[in-house]
C-alpha cells in the first residue's frame, strides 16, 4: 500500500515530535503493509512555515535514518497545503510542494468554517493544471450544509481523500456516517492515514482498506490505497486513472434528503 498523507517528519508541525517517534511510525507503517509514505507536513503560512525545499531536506534526512535502521519504507515529498492567496503562483514556482513533484497536491480546507469562494478557488487550481486532493472532507464541521459543493468539485476534477480512522469510526459516528456517504456516492479517490503519532492517530491503512472492501469490493479498495496512489506518484494524467464507480440512480425519491437529515441528527 501507499500512504499519501502522513505527518511523519519529526518536529516540523503537529505530527511526530521527535526522530524516535518518526522511526516508530515508520515501523508501524511497514508492519501494516505500507511500502511508500508521502511526508506531508502542514504548509500554513503564519503557523507552519514549511516549504518544498525544507520538506525535501527533512525527507532526505529521515530516509537516511530509515536506511541505517533497515526499515524498508520509501519516502516521498508532499505537503498538507492550506488554501491561501497566491497558491497557484506558489505551486508554479515550486515553493509549495506537490506529491512527489506531480500535478497532484493535498489541499486541506479549514476545519470549522467554510472559506469564501471555496468552490471557485478549487476550480481555478484545476484550470491551472493541478489536481487538488481535498483531504478529509468527512471530518469538516461544515460538511453538513455543503456536501453538494464537494460533489460538484469532484465532477470538476478535484479528488477526495478520506482518513482511514474516520472510516473505522475513530472520529465518532457522525464522521463515520459522512465517510460512508462519500464512499457510497462514488466520490472517494484515495484512502490515507493522516497519521500524526503511534497512539491516537497511527500510520495504519489495512483495517480501513478492508472496511472499504466490505462495502465497495476489494478492487475499489485496492484502487484507493495502491492503484491511484501509484498513478499520483507517476504523475499520470487523471483521465488515464480509473475513477470511482458512480452509484445507479435510486428509485426512491427523497432518499438523499432523508440520509442528510439523519446525519444532521447524529451531529446534535
TrEMBL record:
Keyword Membrane: no
Origin: domain of life: Bacteria
UniProtKB keywords: Hydrolase
InterPro entries: Caps_polysacc_synth_CpsB/CapC (IPR016667), Pol/histidinol_Pase-like (IPR016195)
UniProt catalytic activity: O-phospho-L-tyrosyl-[protein] + H2O = L-tyrosyl-[protein] + phosphate
Secretion signal span: none
Protein name: protein-tyrosine-phosphatase
Native source organism of the sequence: Coralloluteibacterium stylophorae
Amino acid at each position: 500500500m501507499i500512504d499519501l498523507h502522513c505527518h511523519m517528519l519529526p518536529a516540523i508541525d503537529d505530527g511526530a515530535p521527535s526522530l524516535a517517534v518518526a522511526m516508530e511510525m515508520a515501523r508501524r507503517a511497514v508492519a501494516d503493509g505500507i511500502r511508500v509514505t508521502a511526508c506531508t507536513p502542514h504548509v500554513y503560512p503564519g503557523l507552519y512555515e514549511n516549504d518544498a525545499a525544507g520538506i525535501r531536506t527533512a525527507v532526505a534526512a529521515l530516509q537516511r535514518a530509515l536506511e541505517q535502521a533497515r526499515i524498508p519504507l520509501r519516502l516521498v515529498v508532499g505537503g498538507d497545503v492550506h488554501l491561501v492567496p497566491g497558491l497557484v503562483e506558489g505551486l508554479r514556482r515550486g515553493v509549495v510542494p506537490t506529491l512527489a513533484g506531480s500535478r497532484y497536491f493535498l489541499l486541506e480546507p479549514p476545519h470549522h468554517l467554510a472559506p469564501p469562494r471555496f468552490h471557485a478557488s478549487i476550480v481555478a487550481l484545476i484550470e491551472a493544471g493541478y489536481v487538488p486532493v481535498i483531504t478529509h472532507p468527512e471530518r469538516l464541521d461544515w460538511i453538513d450544509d455543503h456536501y453538494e459543493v464537494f460533489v460538484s468539485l469532484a465532477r470538476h476534477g478535484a479528488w477526495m481523500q478520506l482518513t482511514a480512522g474516520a472510516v473505522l469510526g475513530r472520529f465518532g459516528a457522525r464522521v463515520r456516517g459522512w465517510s460512508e456517504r462519500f464512499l457510497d456516492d462514488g466520490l472517494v479517490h484515495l484512502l490515507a492515514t493522516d497519521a500524526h503519532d503511534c497512539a491516537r492517530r497511527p500510520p495504519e491503512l489495512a483495517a480501513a482498506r478492508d472496511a472499504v472492501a466490505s462495502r465497495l469490493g476489494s478492487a475499489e479498495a485496492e484502487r484507493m490505497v495502491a492503484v491511484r496512489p501509484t498513478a499520483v506518484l507517476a504523475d499520470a494524467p487523471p483521465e488515464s486513472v480509473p475513477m470511482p464507480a458512480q452509484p445507479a440512480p435510486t428509485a426512491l425519491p427523497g432518499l438523499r434528503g432523508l440520509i442528510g437529515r439523519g446525519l444532521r441528527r447524529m451531529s446534535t
